[in-house]
């Protein structure tokens, strides 16, 4: 099993920056994907950004050019640098880990960290 520990959420004014971290522990496969999703009140959870163990990335349209995802494979940690934050970025940010081994998809969610952007 894999456990995820998230940190870095908080309250920031519009235009500010925050950095989220998510550390994975447990049975980590070398080939995996980690990333961030967010959920605002009354809305569905949506993709923010994910990064594969080979470094390739996918970003949600609403954060392209403002957010940057990176990872440290030696530490099994993924980072999300969020710049030029907007009030619509407010929500609970969830870290997700996933891998595919022997034809079986495995994924786990973190507990979530609150990000609030004030106008």
Based on secondary structure, the structural category is: mainly beta
Query: Mind telling me the C-alpha Rg?
Result: 14 Å
Name the average pLDDT: 96
**Global geometry:** elongated
Number of E strands: 11
The secondary-structure element order is: EEEEEEEEEEE
Number of H- or I-type helical stretches: 0
What's the helical proportion of residues? Answer: under 10%
Query: Terminal Cα separation, in Å?
Result: 40 Å
Q: Strand fraction band? A: over 45%
Low-confidence stretches: none
Largest sheet: 7 strands, mixed
Overall description:
This protein is mostly beta strands and 119 residues long. The chain has no helices and 11 strands. It is elongated and about 45 Å long. It starts with a strand and ends with a strand. 29% of the residues are buried.
List keywords for this structure.
seven-stranded mixed β-sheet, 11 strands, 0% helix, 119 residues
Task: Give a quick precis of the structure.
With 119 residues, this protein is an all-beta fold. 0% of the residues lie in helices and 61% in strands. The strands form two sheets. Strands 2, 4, 5, 6, 9, 10 and 11 form a seven-stranded mixed β-sheet that branches. A four-stranded antiparallel β-sheet has the order 1-3-8-7, with no helix packed on it.
């Amino acid at each position: 099993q894999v456990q995820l520990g998230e940190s870095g959420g908080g309250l920031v004014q519009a235009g500010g920056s925050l950095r989220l971290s998510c550390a994975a522990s447990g049975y980590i496969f070398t080939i995996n994907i980690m990333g961030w999703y967010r959920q605002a009140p009354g809305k569905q959870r949506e993709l923010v950004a994910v990064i594969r163990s080979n470094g390739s990335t996918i970003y949600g349209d609403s954060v392209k050019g403002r957010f940057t995802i990176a990872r440290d494979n030696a530490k099994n940690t993924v980072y999300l640098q969020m710049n030029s934050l907007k009030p619509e970025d407010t929500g609970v940010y969830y870290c997700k880990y996933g891998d595919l081994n022997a034809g079986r998809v495995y994924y786990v969610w973190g507990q979530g960290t609150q990000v609030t952007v004030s106008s």
